[in-house]
Amino acid sequence: MKQPLIFTERRLLPRLIDILLTLIAWAGFLWLIYIGMVKAIIDQPDMGPRPVASTINTLALYIIIAALYGGVLIIWARYNQYRFRTERRERRPELENDEVAESFQITPELVEELNKARVLTVHHNEHGGIKSVDIHHTNADGQ
Question: For 92-121, how does the pLDDT look when each residue is reduced to its tens digit (9 = 90+)?
């Protein structure tokens, strides 16, 4: 798939907020490392390897917890793949052209024309009704 199905607009303000929150999180992480390990080594140099070992033990615990969470998520995904491997829902009957035309308040001829088109643009009025339709005709190559 070359293009995503849903396009989201990324404005400058939300991106700046994301960047700011990321920088704050990294600053907090570095501050915790400084307080937990570096400051302990500077304040008590004769303490030995205890602050380093304690920090490594804490990081190992975090990695084990993250791996367990990841394993649970993978097991849950595999379970859902197994559970939903067959479609249990029945397909709803297709609407007839006159039902579609009545629903959208357009002519049945326009519905037939819309069904033939591969690419079209639908313009709506302020109440959500169809104002106009631009049908983009393509050549035999699909371009």
Answer: 888 888 898 888 888 888 888 888 888 888
Q: Measured between alpha carbons, how far is residue 58 from residues 16, 40, 51, 121 in Å?
A: 32, 15, 11, 57
Shared domain check, 39 and 61: no
Q: How far apart are CA 138 and CA 89, in angstroms?
A: 35
Judgement on whether residues 129 and 107 belong to the same structural domain of the protein: yes
Q: Which of 136, 131, 96 is nearest to 116 (CA)?
A: 136
Residue 17 falls inside a structural domain: yes
Per the listing, tokens 């104002």 go with: 131
137: tokens are 């005709």
- Nearest CA-CA partner of 107 in 96, 98, 116, 115: 98
Helix (H) or strand (E) holding 87: none
pLDDT digits (tens, 9 = 90+) for 60-100: 998 999 999 999 999 999 998 888 888 777 878 888 888 98
Containing domain of residue 115, as a range?
Answer: 97-136
The amino acid at 23: L
Confidence category of residue 20, pLDDT binned at 50, 70, 90: very high
**Amino acid at the residue 91:** R
